Predict the structure.
Amino acid sequence: MTQAKRSRLSPEKRRMQLLDNARTLILSKGLSSFTMDALAREAGVSHPLIYKYFDTRLSLLQALLERESTAFNSRLRDQVMQAGGYEELIRLFVAANFVQFSSNNIVYVLREQPDVFAVIAERERRQQRETAKFLVRTLADQFTVTKKQAEQLVVLASGASQRAAAHYDRYGGDREAMIADTVRFIHGGIGELRRADTQEK
């Protein structure tokens, strides 16, 4: 009885396969139990083969975080470009937080490890600053609020969105209803600020 010949993958495909298998293992078994030996078994490859692509467990985890974070940010950027107004933008960013702050999300799991997160920390800070500037500009353009008010609103909205996402991750519930409630809460805050500002004038 002859054994089926294993197909040879290109280096890039093999690298992606190893990262895919690492992702699956971490989400199913947890990061603390993730080892290179476990990955070799999951991927059906020899232990030395993994080290041909990744020098250490840390370098593998950093590569996985870079890949997953880049893909997430790219999808969000595409959605933002197609958004049809500020309310839709708010919903996109709130929904993104519900994904980002989920303990079932590989980016969230890896970001919690300082040595892993270090590889994308500066890029993430830069992206957060750019996103905040974009939201402040959009808010100031669409509503009669000052730049300072817009900055405060973005900070408050971001905090509300992240807390709502963390609450959902911990306690569960109706995800879509909670996203919708968070969007209404943020939008109501914008409306209230505008009313208060009009009354003062």
User: Anything to note?
Assistant: Residues 1-5 have pLDDT under 50 and may be disordered. The radius of gyration is 21 Å.
